[in-house]
Amino acid sequence: MAEAAHGRLALGAWRSRRRRSRSARETGRLGFLLIVPALAVSGVLVLYPLVKGFNTSLHTGGAGTGLPSQYVGFHNYSTGLSDPTTGQAIAHTALYLVIALTIEITAGLFIAVTLQRAFRGRGIILAILILPWALPSVVSGLLWRRVFDPQNGLLNHLLMDLHIIHDPQVWLAGAGAIPFITLVHAWGVIPLVSLIFLAGLQAIPEEVYAASAVDGATPFKQFRHITLPLLLPSLAVAATVGTIAAINIFDEIYVLNGTALNTRSFVMQVYNTTFIEANFSVGTALAFLVGGATALFGILYTFAFRRATA
After folding, report:
1. Rounded to an integer, what distance in angstroms lies between the CA atom of residue 284 and that of residue 273?
2. In this structure, what is the dihedral angle of CA atoms 16, 20, 26, 27, given to the nearest 10 degrees?
3. Is 46 exposed, middle or buried (CB count within 10 Å of its CB: 0-12, 13-18, 19+)?
4. Do 28 and 140 lie in a common domain?
């Protein structure tokens, strides 16, 4: 009887495992069926244009030019990169990136630390903080164009009233054009970076600071040895967001300074090559290089900060 009871228990356990396995398979099939529409839409709207665009970058001519399409491999990539204007645009984009990340990370961290504690009016300040990020970049560019206008701009009037300058300056024509445009760009990205850092700060337990205070840690040491190390994941996200935005900077440049060579970015070079010069093959190749650079930076940030937090 004991053996029979043991057999019935084993049979019941086997049937239970079989039911769970069948339920898991049915759940998996249902999940797959539910994501099929999303996969189909993604394939049509994302994968097909990517494949089509990459194929265009490997050919010359085509329907857009009225010439027969001819496979040239990666010749369009080398042609685009060998253009001296493209080299200048890459150098400008690197400068935009360095200045923008410096401003955004520094200002974003300062604002987040300031707003970490609750105080009267904090909600109002947060609402005002989000406004530059909520504004479209074209609108931000138009607002700041009134500031930098050489004839009746706010900056010239202010500096002349303070007797710092004596004549109106053309701010976007000299060496300071890229820093000024980067400042406008960072003005719109800083709110997002600040919110990322603020979320990271609020995730740090207060007990950690309390314990370190008992051990005699000063606020500076707490910031250096507790806050910064625990903020590395947030820093990775903020750096990735800032890098992608800086590499793809276009609207602010176009609104403030048009297609001038002294401030032209890589994405603006893509625009000029594709739509102004009507060289779709080379323009598409340059666009894929922008996408590749963006993906590369994202991967590098991920591995670097993962190793730092490991």
Report:
1. 9
2. 150
3. exposed
4. no
150-166 confidence digits (pLDDT tens): 888 888 888 888 888 88
Measure the CA–CA gap between 209 and 113, rounded to whole angstroms: 14
Contacts (Cβ under 8 Å, ≥6 apart) of 36: none
234 within 8 A of 196, measured Cβ to Cβ: yes
CB-count exposure of residue 310 (10 Å: 0-12, 13-18, 19+): exposed
| Packed helices 232-247 and 177-202: angle between N→C axes, nearest 10 degrees | 150
Query: In 117-255, at which residue ranges do the beta strands (DSSP E only) sit?
Result: none
E strands present in 72-158: none
Judgement on whether residues 192 and 52 belong to the same structural domain of the protein: no
- If one compares 178 and 60, the residue with the highest pLDDT of the two is 178
List, for residues 112-134, the tens digit of each pLDDT value.
Answer: 988 888 778 788 888 888 888 88
Q: What are phi and psi of 136, to 5 degrees?
A: -60, 145
Categorize the per-residue pLDDT at 14 as very low, low, confident or very high, splitting at 50, 70 and 90. low
Q: Does 102 share its domain with 48?
A: no
Alpha carbon 195 to its chain centroid, in Å, reads: 14
d(CA 79, CA 124): 52
**Mean pLDDT, range 60-65, rounded to an integer:** 64
Q: How many domains does the chain have?
A: 2
Q: Tokens representing 147? A: 């500031």
For residues 239 and 63, the answer to whether their CB atoms sit within 8 Å is: no
Measured CA to CA, the distance from residue 121 to residue 107 in angstroms comes to 20
Q: Phi and psi dihedrals of 232, rounded to 5? A: -55, -40
* pLDDT tier at 233, thresholds 50, 70, 90: confident
Largest CA distance in the chain: 108
Structural domain for 14, as ranges: 2-57
Q: 151 and 69 in contact (C-beta within 8 Å)?
A: no
Contact 310, 232 (CB under 8 A): no
